[in-house]
Amino acid sequence: MSMQQVNKKNIYYPPGGILLWILIFLELITFGAALVAMMVYGKQEPEMFHASRLHLNTTIGTINTIALITSGFFMALSVQYFKEKNLKKSSLFLKLTMLGGVLFLALKGFEYYEKIEVGLTIGYNTFFTFYWLLTLFHVIHLLVGLVILLFMQHDLNKNKTNANLEDIEASAAFWHMCDLIWLLIFPVIYLIF
């Protein structure tokens, strides 16, 4: 089977196999349920949630959103160039994807530092309990995604003939899940309350 052919009757289609897609749906349901719970609690204590949200840095949240959307676009380009057998461009856009993830983590780390410095930790109030749990859980997913992308980059650099389309597409699916989760988190935490 060549790099471009995908056996659609195979368990590895959709990209990453059915287990990856089950994981993605479970993660989206988990984050979605937590965000719904946050909104329910927010309706019970609207003043506290609003006052707490004002302590967040919406500029950093917005830049992080742009960084992840851009990195998701670069990931799609990486997959497309891989399908076209342009491994040099595929590798370049994979690196740019990882750069977007690293930028997100650096800015999130700065934001966490700001919160800890002024005592807005996980136990400060209900809003910040949700803030820390949701964003830290997302950061863990992003770190896992970066590790996966590093392995893909290693495969592209080490032995370009053994790079596998299904693996590249599976890593892209996981990365896009991280993007989508952030697109759910950002408006609820940074904008609604």
TrEMBL record:
One of its GO terms (molecular function) is cytochrome-c oxidase activity. Keywords: Membrane, Transmembrane, Transmembrane helix. Its main location: membrane. It is a multi-pass membrane protein. Gene3D superfamilies: Cytochrome c oxidase, subunit III, four-helix bundle (1.20.120.80). It is found in: Membrane. One of its GO terms (biological process) is aerobic electron transport chain. The keyword Endoplasmic reticulum does not apply. The chain crosses the membrane at residues 12-40, 60-80, 92-110, 130-152, 173-192. Pfam families: COX3. Belongs to the cytochrome c oxidase subunit 3 family. This is Nitric oxide reductase activation protein NorE. It comes from hydrothermal vent metagenome.
